[in-house]
C-alpha cells in the first residue's frame, strides 16, 4: 500500500496525520520535509530524488514538488489536509488539480465549529463532486501520540486519560477505515 499525504499549504496537520497513520497501517514513514517529528520518528528524509516504495506513507511538505506529484499519481490513496481558511482551501484545490490520481480524500483539520466542515465540503464539492471531505476536529490526540512515539490507536488503548480524545478518536478511526478501503491489496489490520 502506498499512501501520500500532501498539500501545498503548511500548517494543516500533514505530519501528525501521516505519523499516526503510518504507525497504524504499519507503513514506512517517508518525507521530503525536515521537521523535528521526522527526525524523532527516524523517518527517511529526501530532499531531491524521492524513491517510490511499496508499503510506505509519504508525508510531503507544504511546498511544490514535482517528485511528490509523481509519487502521488501512483499511490493507492492521496490525502489532502486543509483547514477552513481561504489560502488553505485554494492550495488544496491546486493540489487536487495537479494530481491525476482519482483516489483522493480531503481531511478538514482543526475544525472549531460545524460551520467549518460545511464550508470546506461546499468549496471542495463545487470543484470536485466525487471527493469526500472527512472531519477532524481541533484536538491534541495526534500531537500527543507523536510526542510519545506511538499511534493514536496505541495512545487510546494505553492511556488512562484517553476519554479526553473520544470524539477526535472516532473521527480518526473513520479516516483510518477510509484509507484501508482504498488498498489495492485488501489490506487488513
Strand and helix layout:
Blueprint: E1 2-6, H1 14-24, E2 28-31, H2 36-40, E3 44-45, E4 56-60, H3 66-74, E5 77-82, H4 86-98, E6 104-111, H5 114-127, E7 132-137, H6 141-148, H7 152-158, H8 166-181
Parallel strand pairs: 1-4, 1-5, 2-3, 2-4, 5-6, 6-7
Describe this structure in a few short sentences:
This protein is of the alpha/beta class. Helices cover 44% and strands 19% of the residues. A seven-stranded parallel sheet has the order 3-2-4-1-5-6-7, sandwiched between helices.
What tags apply to this protein structure?
189 residues; Rossmann fold; seven-stranded parallel sheet; 7 strands
What count of helical segments does DSSP give? Answer: 8
Summed over residues and divided by their number, the pLDDT gives a mean of 86
Poorly predicted ranges: none
Identify the overall geometry: globular
Helical residue percent band = 40-55%
Number of strands: 7
How much of the sequence lies in strands comes to 15-25%
CATH topology, by name, is: Rossmann fold
Q: Which class in CATH terms? A: Alpha Beta
The largest pleated sheet is described as: 7 strands, parallel
Strand order of the largest sheet: 3-2-4-1-5-6-7
CATH superfamily: P-loop containing nucleotide triphosphate hydrolases
**Second CATH tier, the architecture:** 3-Layer(aba) Sandwich
Head-to-tail CA distance between termini: 12 Å
Question: What gyration radius follows from the Cα positions, in whole Å?
Answer: 15 Å
Amino acid at each position: 500500500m502506498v499512501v501520500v499525504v500532501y498539500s501545498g499549504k503548511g500548517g494543516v496537520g500533514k505530519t501528525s496525520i501521516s505519523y499516526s497513520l503510518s504507525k497504524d497501517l504499519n507503513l514506512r514513514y517517508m518525507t521530503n520535509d525536515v521537521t523535528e517529528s521526522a527526525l524523532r520518528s527516524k523517518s527517511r528524509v529526501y530532499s531531491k530524488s524521492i524513491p517510490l516504495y511499496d508499503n510506505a506513507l509519504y508525508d510531503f511538505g507544504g511546498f511544490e514538488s514535482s517528485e511528490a506529484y509523481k509519487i502521488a499519481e501512483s499511490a493507492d490513496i492521496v490525502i489532502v489536509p486543509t483547514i477552513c481558511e481561504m489560502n488553505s482551501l485554494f492550495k488544496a484545490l491546486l493540489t487536487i488539480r495537479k494530481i491525476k490520481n482519482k483516489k483522493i480524500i480531503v481531511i478538514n483539520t482543526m475544525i472549531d465549529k460545524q460551520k467549518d466542515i460545511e464550508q470546506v465540503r461546499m468549496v471542495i464539492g463545487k470543484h470536485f463532486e466525487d471527493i469526500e471531505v472527512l472531519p477532524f476536529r481541533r484536538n491534541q490526540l495526534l500531537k500527543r501520540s507523536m510526542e510519545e512515539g506511538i499511534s493514536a490507536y496505541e495512545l487510546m488503548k494505553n492511556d488512562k486519560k484517553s476519554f479526553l480524545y473520544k470524539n477526535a478518536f472516532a473521527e480518526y478511526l473513520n479516516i483510518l477505515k477510509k484509507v484501508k478501503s482504498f488498498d489495492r491489496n485488501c489490506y487488513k489490520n
